[in-house]
Hints:
Chain A is mostly helical. Chain A has 8 helices and 3 strands.
Amino acid sequence: MSGISDTERMITLKTVEGTLFDVKSSIAKDLKTVQAFIDDSDDDVTSPIPLPNVFTRELSRILDYLNNHHRFRSGIEKADEEMARYDAEFAKSMSHEELKALILAANYLNVKDLLEFLNQTVADVIQNKSVEFVRNFFGIENDYTPEEEEKLRNENEWAFNGVEQD
Amino acid sequence: MGNTASTAAAAVASRRESAAVQGNRSGISSKSRSVSSSVSPMISSTVNSVDDDGGSRRDFVEPDYISDLPDECLASVFQSLSSADRNRCSLVCRRWLQIEGQSRHRVSLNAQSELLPAIPSLFSRFDSVTKLALKCDRRSASIGDDALVLISRRCPNLTRLKLRACRELTDAGMEAFAKNCKGLKKLSCGSCMFGSRAMNAVLENCGSLEELSVKRLRGITDAAAAEPIGPGTAAQSLRTICLKELYNGQCFSSLILGAKNLRTLKLFRCSGDWDKLFQLISERSLGGSGAPSIVEIHLERLQISDVGLQAISNCSNLEILHLVKTPECTDVGLIAISERCKLLRKLHIDGWKANRIGDEGLIGVAKGCPNLQELVLIGVNPTKLSLEMLASNCLNLERLALCGSDTVGDPEISCIAAKCVALKKLCIKGCPVSDHGMEALASGCPNLVKVKVKKCKGVTSEGGDWLRQIRVSLAVNLDTGDTDHQDASASDGGAQDNGLEFPPMAAHNAGGAGGGASAGVASSSTGRSTSFKSRLGLLSGRSLVACTLRKWTGGNTSARHG
């Protein structure tokens, strides 16, 4: 369906808790999972699209991020700095739990740029940290036996730890 | 070092049945499916992991209990991590071991002989390696052919291989490797013992090879036994050839000649007379096959003379030329190149203070190469005559470095300031420039962004500060070149073993004011040459330089100070 510009069309999304979000279709395009659903539907999607895996808190953040990035990109030149500042604040504003939850939501909704950014943020958190720290951060239990772990550590010794240059 | 297959490896081997792997035992299943973007939002997060009771379970994943990330997210996280961090991640749990291993494409291994037993486990774990480095140290026995062949069978999709000091590898091993890894694009080997048969095997089997870099290949020292290294099936694909410290580099001649699409050729310290090769290259082009495709040539410490340069001048596509410590190359050769290589945009010359190249040659460059963007002169003594012409004719000259020139003083800097309108970056090292010269920069070179001054005794920190104040947008990087610092430094403005790399501003890290004692020290200098250089730094007497040059070039040249 064309004619009227897409940016005027609104899509409604419904979170787990039942909260409704009205989203411009230009923004909805970045939620690839949603977009695929829309594309697959023969008729116009008028009723709210339910997102059974996505919670209000996460969707709200995702839309916030996308709205801001759209704004930065369509604005004047200085946007790069502003965008970097926004991104830094955005990352800082979340606890580790919230960060992980957001990654799951962004992954489910397939929001590519945000996902890359969030994965990088996690990488920044865990780099140079101990194995224990990483386990705690993710709430993962060690499922190696002490012998296995020891053998794996030995095996790792074979791989150089330096920066690999070409 | 582990020398038996670990049980972690057994876990890895069974990873294909993902149902058997549990990410964690805290009671919440983690997603192990890969995301599909066409999933309708109507589908809830069904997790098909099999837990201890053997049944599959559907769990509603709530934010508070989320503990782990989907595979693809983890892989993306790992991508930004160093090898050390990735190793730590592999220790977190078995699932992470699996994901980390599968997503590691670049691996660098300690190639000692004891690596062999660990290979099956390592390469079950790292099953997507495309770039591999095998490095041994000089004191240890390296892996042998059997290890290399084993690895090659497990990495059939290898695109890059780097070998260092794997002295136990033979021609046979390399041949077997090449047959298994036919998609190889880049091979770099240093301090290995195999010979031309190995090289030919790679060139025959790896028809997509783009880059070949060979340093100190011991197996070709015997000129009689070495068979010529021919282009093989890689003739069309080879783009870059780099040869360093070879006793018999000539046996690569047929390769160089046969690589029809060769763009970059680098020859460092390879013995023999190289004039002939370039003559052959140019004869081929004159014979009607069109100008050679070569765009970049680096020649360092080679036996090459004006005859060779004249031949190189037939490479009309040449854009980048480095002539480092080639005292048989004189103004005559440089003029020949500048007359025919109109596309030249980057020129580096280390004249080794032999004064074979000077104003005449540079004036030739000024006349013939209007596209010049970058000029680095080390141990060359240009005067205003040539600098003026370069400035006026080379209107695209953006980066200029002058190092160890006795003739570059304040008048020369003023001239550059007045005339080099396009200049963005300027580096001056070990030249008789003073604060007056810096003053000239205050009002000249309108596009100047960075200026770096090192080891110029006449330039003080006050001079630098003054310049910074006048031109606020200019980055001024000084070491003040005070005598105290110079004594401590092992490097000087004269004959240096470190080639100056552009951009010099970025490469040197200790150039800050007052801290320049170790700036720019040659990383490859030996103890002996260090003392030579420090003497050179303090005394620039002819006899000392002359005697040093004779020593280094085996008596072929006598230094002249013009």
